[in-house]
Structure formats: C-alpha cells, structure tokens
Amino acid sequence: MRRPDLHLHTTASDGQLDVWQVARLVARADVTLFAITDHDTLSALPAAADAAYERGLAFLSGVEISTEGDEEVHILGYGVRHDDPVLNAFFRDMQEQRVNRVRLIGDKLKALGMELPIEEIIADAGSSVGRPHIGRALAARGFVRDTAEAFNRFIGNGKPAYVPRLTPTAADAIRLLANRGAVSVLAHPGEIRWPVERVLERLNEWQRAGLMGLEVYHPANRGHYADWERIAREKHLLVTGGSDFHGEGASHGMIGETAAEWPNALHDAWKLFRLAKQNESQGVTL
Ligand code: AMP
Ligand code: ZN
Ligand code: FE
Ligand code: FE
Fold it and tell me: Which of 77, 3, 86, 89 is nearest to 39 (CA)?
C-alpha cells in the first residue's frame, strides 16, 4: 500500500539512523511520500532530498521546533528551505542555549558530588546536546545504573540537577515559519503535557498566529484519532500524520505505521505537500 510518513528523525538530531538508512527503510515500508523533521536543525535536508531522488520517493523538507520549555509543545514546519538564513540563525541560537544549559546542569551535578567532563560531552554530542547525553555519561561513570535512574533522581523535571530549557513560544515558532514561507503544524497534540482543554484554547491563538495543520495520526494520539480528526476538520486545519521514527527499537513509532489507521492518508498528505511545495518554490526573501 502506498502511504505517507510526515514525521521522521535522523542522526542530525536524536534519531539513530542517517538519512540514507532512513530512506532505505522508507522505501522498504512502501512509504512513497516522506518528510524529515529533525529537532531544531535543517542539516539533514540536502542529503535527504538526494536520498529520496535516488529512490524515486516524494520528499518534503521539514523541521520540528521545540517550544514552551519541556511541555512537548512541538511545531512542525514543512516546505522549509535548508539554506534559509533566518531559520538557520534561529536554530544556531537554540543550540547555543542547549550548550549553556548543559553546562549549568554540569555545575549542579558537580555540587552534588558527580563531576562529568561536560565540554567533552558537548563536543561529542553533535547539534543538539541534552539530558540524554548527561544521563548516559552518569551511567557510564557508575553514578546511576541507567539513563532512567539519572532522570528519576537527578535530571528529570523538578529534580536537583534539573535546568529548564529556554525555548520560543509556540506562537513565535508559528509566526517565524509563516514568515519564511513554511507550513506549520502542531505536532502530537496527545503528547502535550497540558489538559486537552488548554491545548484546544491555545489552538485558537496559534491559528491566529498562522498555524495551518494538526498532526492527528501520531502514535501518541492512538485511541483518540477520531476526536483529533474532528477537531482538525472543525477548525479547518490540515490533517497530517507520521510515526516520529527515531530508529528501530527506539521508543517511538515505526516507519509508516500510523498511515495504516489514517483513512484519507494520501489525500491529506498530498494537500500538505502541494501547499508546502508551493511556498517553498516561491522562495523566501532574505
Ligand atoms: P532535553 O531535550 O535535553 O530536555 O532532553 C529531553 C529528552 O530526554 C527527551 O526527548 C527524551 O528522549 C529524554 N527523556 C525525557 N525524560 C526521560 C526519562 N524519564 N527517562 C529517559 N529519558 C528521558
Ligand atoms: Zn526526538
Ligand atoms: Fe516531538
Ligand atoms: Fe519528533
């Protein structure tokens, strides 16, 4: 069956596989239209477009912007240009903020008697250093058994070495994407750590900022697809979906899996595809 998957991660952020490996699995899963949506970076997009071309797959460039701290309010942007100077400057600032925050976590851990080679961890981590790297380093030095214990005792939200991330508001991310000619979609509404009523209230505000779609068919919404689909249709938001694949055996979806439960998958996905491509090819002002 031909199906879309509009939410995939690679090693450019916290996925386990590079774009070539992801494209191979995309083709094998009979996914014919896919988007790469790494966290806060556009760096995988040129290679992803090449990999898609080689395999004759339709490809949409994307990104997933972290907003509102650690509440899992993520904004997907489609039709972004990998060389967009404004977006790239914005993501560079976010990376700097991540680095500074990891240094602060390192200070707190040191005060608790656990010294880590923070600069080494930062240098090895790639473009989005975060708590998973700290957790693995704590485990490697025997301060904890595993990353889960590191979160539970030290670096999870509200724990003694926790430092929040300073992230843009969702409305800011939506406006930025709109200004750069991209289509913005609210990712995995069911994963947001707010009561549903609060998400629905904010949806109105975000639509005024330029939000154009809702990621209904995401594994976090399973069991509630019909509800989110109805909300999207009522609000005239595009319906999108994807697996949020991070690697085989990683704690997210498998490529193409949500399309099986998505009645109008190809129709909905092509609607987003056309809109995003239109914007992308019109270009953006520098
Ligand atoms: P950060 O972006 O640095 O705040 O780290 C967030 C990431 O840490 C999430 O994407 C998860 O992959 C991971 N994470 C969050 N909470 C936990 C937890 N309790 N145990 C293990 N990993 C976690
Ligand atoms: Zn991720
Ligand atoms: Fe997300
Ligand atoms: Fe994601």
Answer: 77
Q: Could you give the CA distance from residue 216 to residue 232 in angstroms, rounded to a whole number?
A: 8
pLDDT of residue 1: 58
- Provide residues with CB under 6 Å of ligand 1: 70, 130-132, 147-148, 151, 156, 165
**283 confidence band (pLDDT: 50, 70, 90):** low
DSSP 153-196: IIISTTSTT--------HHHHHHHHHHTT-EEEE--GGGSSS-H
Place of tokens 């406006």: 175
User: What is the C-alpha separation between 281 and 142, in angstroms, rounded?
Assistant: 52
Task: Give distance in angstroms: CA of 64 to centre of ligand 3.
Answer: 7
Tell me the pLDDT of the chain averaged across its residues: 94
Ligand 1 atom showing the smallest separation from residue 251 Cα: 12
**β-pairing, 238-241 with 183-186?**
unpaired
Residue with CA nearest ligand 1 atom 14: 132
Residue 132 CA: which ligand is closest? 1
